[in-house]
Amino acid sequence: MSDTRATILVTGGCGYIGTHTIVCLLQKDYDVVVADNLSNSSIVSLDRVAEIVGLSEHDRASRLVFHQVDICDEAAFRKVFESSPRFESCIHFAGLKAVGESTKKPLLYYDNNLSGTFVLLRMMDEFQCHSLVFSSSATVYGAAENMPITEDTPVGAGITNAYGRTKYMIEEILRDFYQSQTLEESTTDWSITILRYFNPVGSHPSGKIGEDPNGIPNNLMPYVAQVAIGRREHLTVFGSDYNTADGTGVRDYLHVMDLADGHLAAMDYMKQKKSGIFTFNLGTGNGYSVLDMVKAMGKACGHEIKYVVGNRRQGDIATCFADANLAKNEMGWVASRDLDEMCRDLWCWQTQNPNGFAGQPCESQ
Ligand code: NAD
Ligand code: WQD
Questions:
Q1: What pTM was computed for the model?
Q2: Residue-range definition of the domain harbouring residue 15
Q3: Which mutation among 96, 97, 316 tests ligand 2's pocket best, with the greatest number of atoms within 8 A of CB?
Q4: Is 183 within the bounds of a domain?
Q5: Residue 341 burial by CB count (10 A; 0-12/13-18/19+): exposed, middle or buried?
Q6: How many angstroms does the Cα of residue 109 sit away from the middle of ligand 1?
Q7: Is residue 358 part of a domain?
Q8: Among 141, 163, 269, 307, which one carries the catalytic annotation?
Q9: Residue 218 C-alpha to ligand 2 middle, in angstroms?
Q10: Engineered SS bond to 315: which of 126, 130, 160, 359, CB 3.0-4.6 Å?
Q11: Alpha carbon of 220 to ligand 2 centroid (Å)
Q12: Whose alpha carbon is nearest atom 41 of ligand 1?
C-alpha cells in the first residue's frame, strides 16, 4: 500500500465482475484490498489480474492484497480493516447469485447476502470509510411492463426468487442506513451508489479472466460458449413463444469491461457529489434476443451454435432492457462495446481456458 495512492476495499473481488473491475482500479492507480471467501471463485483469478496489469511480485504484495475471509464473520472481517490503510471506498460484490439455488436454499441467500452487508456497513462506519458502491441487479424491477426500464420504474413487486429479493432488500436497507446518517447532523459524508446491472457478458480482451461458472451454467452466454467449444452438445432455448420479434427472450447484454468502468465512474461521481444515495441502471439500452446472441456467438467462433427449442424457464420474463441515460447524463458513463466485441472476448476467454481457472496457468499459453 502506498502513502499517495488511495486504497479500495473490494468484497467478492475474486469473482467474475470483481476481477474485471480490479483490473480497471489498478490501471487507474488505486491500491486494492480484496475480501473473498472463494465460495464461488478461485484465487487463480487474482494471479491473472496481476498478469494483465503487469504487477511485479513486489508490487503485487503491496497493491493487490488478498484476504480469504467470509464477510459475515465480523471478527475475521474486522481484522481486514484493522490491518489495512483507511479505505477511500468499498465496492461490494460479495454475494451468492444463483437464481435457481436461491429458490431451493432461501435462508442461505438471505443469510449470506444480507448479513454480509450488515457486517460491512458496521465495519465501514467504525473504520470511517463512508463511500460504497453496491452491486444490484435489474432483477429488482421484477416483470416491468414498460420498456426501456428507467430507475423510476417500481421495484420489489413481481420478483420471482429469493436472490432477487436479497438485492431489493439490500437496496432498501441502504436507503434506511443512509437516512439514519443524516438524522443527527444536517449533513453527512456518506455516499452510496446502487448500480443495477443488466446482463453482463464477455471477458477482458486478453482472455485471461472471465466468467467461470460451477457446473452447468445457468446463464445464457456461458452456456453458449461451452457449446461453441464442444463441452456441451447444444443449447436449449427456453421458449420461442414470447411476444418478441423472434419469440425468444430479449435482454440487455453489456460487456463486462463496460460494467467494470461503471464502478470507477460511480466512485468519481461520489467524490464530486461529496454525499448522497444514488441509483443507476448499467446497460446498453439495446435488447437482443436469445437467437441474436446465438448468431453473434456463431460469428465470433466461426461455426454455428447448435440449439433446440425447449419450454419456457419458470420465472423468466419476455423482455428486459435498460434506459441507461441517467448514468450517461450524471456520471458520463456509456457502454461502448458492441455485441461482436462481447462475443469475441468471451470466445477468447473460452478458447484459452476451456475448463475455466481449473485449467493450466494462462501465462504459459
Ligand atoms: P461471482 O459469484 O463471480 O462473484 C461473487 C464473489 O463473492 C465470489 O468470488 C464469492 O466467492 C464471493 N462471496 C460470496 N459470498 C461471500 C461472503 N460471504 N464473503 C466473502 N466473499 C463472498 O458473481 P459476479 O457475477 O461477479 O457478481 C458480483 C455481484 O454482482 C454479486 O453481488 C451479484 O449478485 C451481482 N450481480 C451479478 C450479475 C451477473 O449477471 N453476473 C447481475 C447483476 C448483479
Ligand atoms: C437470458 C435469456 C433465458 C439459458 C439472470 C438473473 C438476473 C441476473 C442476470 C444476477 C433468457 C435464455 C438462458 C439457457 C436460454 N443475475 N436462456 N437458455 O435470466 O436475464 O438474468 O442473470 O443478478 O438476476 O435472473 O439471464 O442469462 O439466465 O438468460 O434460452 O440455457 O436467455 O430464457 O431469455 P436472465 P440468463
A1: 0.98
A2: 7-205+253-284+321-336
A3: 316
A4: yes
A5: middle
A6: 12
A7: no
A8: 163
A9: 7
A10: 160
A11: 6
A12: 200
The b/e string for 300-325 (b: 16+ C-beta within 10 A; e otherwise) is bbeeebebeeeeeeeeebbbbbbbbe
Residue that the C-alpha cell 484493522 belongs to: 82
Q: Which atom of ligand 1 is nearest to the CA of 19?
A: 26
Burial 169-202 (b: 16+ CB within 10 A, else e): bbbeebeebbeebeeeeeebebbbbbbbbbbbbb
Q: Whose CA is nearest to atom 28 of ligand 1?
A: 93
Asked if the structure places residue 360 within a domain, the reply is: no
- Measured CA to CA, the distance from residue 272 to residue 275 in angstroms comes to 9
The answer to whether 267 and 87 have CB atoms below 8 angstroms apart is no
Q: What is the pLDDT at residue 2?
A: 66
Domain of 73, CATH number, reads: 3.40.50.720
User: Is residue 186 assigned to a domain?
Assistant: yes
Amino acid letter at 254?
Answer: L
Q: Can you tell me which atom of ligand 1 is nearest the CA of 212?
A: 3
Residue 13 CA, ligand 1 centroid: distance in Å: 8
Sequence length of the chain is 365
DSSP 3-state of 103:
helix
Each residue's pLDDT tens digit, 281-338: 999 999 999 999 999 999 999 999 999 999 999 999 999 999 999 999 999 999 999 9
Instruction: Check pocket membership of 135 for ligand 1, CB cut-off 6 A.
Output: yes
Number of domains composing the chain: 1
Does residue 363 surpass a pLDDT of 70?
A: no
Q: Please write the tens of the pLDDT for every residue from 251-282.
A: 999 999 999 999 999 999 999 999 999 999 99
- The better pLDDT of the pair 363, 158 is held by 158
Look up the ipTM and state it. 0.99
Which candidate, 245, 347, 238, 341, places its Cα nearest to that of 284?
341
CA–CA gap between residue 90 and residue 122 (Å, rounded): 13
163 is a catalytic site residue: yes
**CA 97 to ligand 1 center in whole angstroms:** 6
Q: Is the CB of 248 under 6 A from ligand 1?
A: no
Would you say 196 and 278 are in contact if contact means Cβ atoms under 8 Å apart? no
